Amino acid sequence: MSVARRLWATAWPAAPLARLRRQLALLAVLLLLAWIDPPVTTKQSVLEWVAVIDVTQSMAVADMVERDAAGRQRPQTRLDFARARLREALLDLPCGSRLGLGVFTAHRSILLLEPVEVCDNYAELQATIARIDYRMGWQGNSEIAKGLDSGLQVVRDLPGAPALAFFTDGQEAPPISPKYRPPLHVERGQVPALVVGVGGDQAMPIPKVDPSGRINGHWGAGEVMQQDLRSLGRDGSTGGQTYVDDNKAPAAAVAPMPGATPGREHLSALREGYLQLLSDELGLDYLRLGNSHELAQALSRGKFARQQPGPLPLRGPLAMLALLLALVIYRPVGVALILAWRSRATSAWARRPQR
């Protein structure tokens, strides 16, 4: 009997030839399908976000804490802290998620980058986030309510209906009156969004940032508007006459907005109460920014995911099935080869000349 016949008899002593042919045919089909990778679509849960970061000057306050490579704590600006946590959160978002980027300054949110897939564009997203800084601001104002409303309008008009993540410390500059708040153009619950508060609880001086992004001193009390414009009265009026509302009640008699500090607006802390108020009014989620895992968990909440048709990757599973089937088919051959090698080695050892 030839070696091939002996190997066949050892490997498949009782295997019907028809069954072996079916297994080999199935293996060929699996390998062919894995090579073709047939286009199959299915409903998939997708996360799609536009992250808008506040680049106004109060975000230059260094009241956040970062650990260096040696584990030592060092102060970090709010902007740097927000950028670092967002860059780290990218690692926790599943492939297939999409992220766009924008900035808020003055009274508007500006889109920098439409949402792109996070795994395929990881390096580009990391580089773009790292380059977001104060030089993108063109005006000293920081009108948070208008900026949030603008950001909601931006994402509402984008294809794919992404959600908005709005990173800010919540400081309105100039302050606004509770009775004359700016109108909002997005209805409650119309756009899914997460308001992310960045900053500490202790009020600290606001740095002056020049057009090149360098910090030159801090703003003083006399350089910053300390009250809303309506409370200051009309220009040229006798005795600083204040505005009145329809009920003839002076606007100055109204309590300031949550977190407002008349007379100390040149100092800045996280205006968490104000951001929570805006979030509640618009039906948005709120998160105080801590570590990147908390941010990634907030961005991955089921309420922000949407169902859309997407490709179902089959090449990997098909190749794995083909490999398993090949192991089932050819395992006896492997066993037979090992046994034949051991038998030959034993015979050679037995024929070895004895001394």
Structure characteristics:
elongated; Rossmann fold; 9 helices; single chain; two-stranded antiparallel ribbon; 34% helix; 355 residues; 14 strands; 6-stranded mixed sheet; alpha/beta
List the helices and strands and how they pair.
Layout: H1 3-11, H2 17-36, E1 41-46, E2 48-54, E3 64-67, E4 73-76, H3 78-89, E5 98-105, E6 108-117, H4 122-130, H5 144-156, E7 163-168, E8 193-197, E9 204-205, E10 207-209, E11 215-218, H6 229-232, E12 267-268, H7 272-282, E13 285-288, H8 292-299, E14 306-311, H9 315-350
Parallel strand pairs: 2-5, 2-7, 7-8, 8-13
Antiparallel strand pairs: 1-14, 3-4, 5-6, 9-12, 10-11
Helix pairs in contact: 1-9, 2-9, 3-4, 3-8
Overview of the molecule:
The structure is a single chain. This protein is of the alpha/beta class. It has helices at 3-11, 17-36, 78-89, 122-130, 144-156, 229-232, 272-282, 292-299, 315-350, and strands spanning 41-46, 48-54, 64-67, 73-76, 98-105, 108-117, 163-168, 193-197, 204-205, 207-209, 215-218, 267-268, 285-288, 306-311. It has a domain at 42-224 and 255-310: von Willebrand factor, type A domain (Rossmann fold, 3-Layer(aba) Sandwich), CATH 3.40.50. The chain is built from 9 helices and 14 strands. The chain has a 6-stranded mixed sheet with strand order 6-5-2-7-8-13, with helices on both faces. Helix 1 crosses helix 9 and helix 3 packs antiparallel against helix 4 (122-130).
